[in-house]
Amino acid sequence: MIEKTLSIIKPDAVERNLIGTIVGRFEKEGFKVVAMKLQRLTKDDAKDFYIEHKARPFYNSLVEYMTSGPVVLMVLQRENAIAKNREVMGATNPAQALPGTIRKEYALSLEKNSVHGSDSAASAAREVEFFFPELVRGC
After folding, report:
1. What is the pTM of this model?
2. Does residue 121 carry a pLDDT above 80?
3. Which one of 6, 18, 116, 124 is the catalytic residue?
4. Among 25, 27, 122, 136, whose CB has the most other CB atoms within 10 angstroms?
């Protein structure tokens, strides 16, 4: 089934000039980039985007980190995009990520783990619409 998913190249990876490397990795895995933009998130954007984590102790530091520099926002498409994106990224904790995954190769820490990807069809729909409403509304 062809799916779309949101992928974010986080501030640590953008700062280290890994945009091309990471995009190339997704393309090598059969993803098509259907939308992309470089953007610095506002605090309000980051707070709203990560709202499901509001009660967690890392929420404020996550918002600070995600607004610390520009990010690359992408919509990726392919068959089983959500699961494949999770596989290519690797575990959230880079210490637990498999060799060859983006997080194992490029993450600096649990927080600075270089990439974000939607974890379900529901979150992919919400996340794509959050940053790319024109794709959902057909504008």
Report:
1. 0.95
2. yes
3. 116
4. 25
